[in-house]
Specification:
- It is a single chain.
- The chain has 90 residues and is mostly helical.
- The chain has one domain.
- 80% of the residues lie in helices and 0% in strands.
- Helix 1 packs antiparallel against helix 4.
- The longest helix has 21 residues.
- It is elongated.
């Protein structure tokens, strides 16, 4: 189950990065949706960062639980915005 979750999160991240790069001007619109606003942050992530986040989630119980709880309401967008901030802290 965890492996499937991590694979799904990684695929979603890659799609959001590609979408953000294609629609850069649209994402700056003040009425951009929740996932679009998170995609702005995702656009700054490299594939290496995405892999680091995925590996960290596989190892860190606290982060994995936080992602699973927030995923229900934000469809995993938590990873793209928040994981970049707490990832280096522990």
């Amino acid at each position: 189950m965890l492996r499937d979750l991590l694979k799904e999160q990684n695929e979603m991240l890659q799609k959001m990065v590609a979408r953000a790069r294609r629609n850069c001007n649209a994402l700056r619109h003040p009425r951009a949706g929740l996932l679009d606003s998170y995609a702005i942050g995702a656009a700054s992530l490299t594939a290496r960062d995405a892999n680091r986040i995925t590996m960290h989630l596989a190892e860190c119980h606290w982060c994995r639980n936080a992602v699973q709880k927030i995923q229900k309401c934000a469809r995993g967008a938590f990873i793209w915005k928040e994981a970049r901030f707490f990832l280096p802290r522990h």
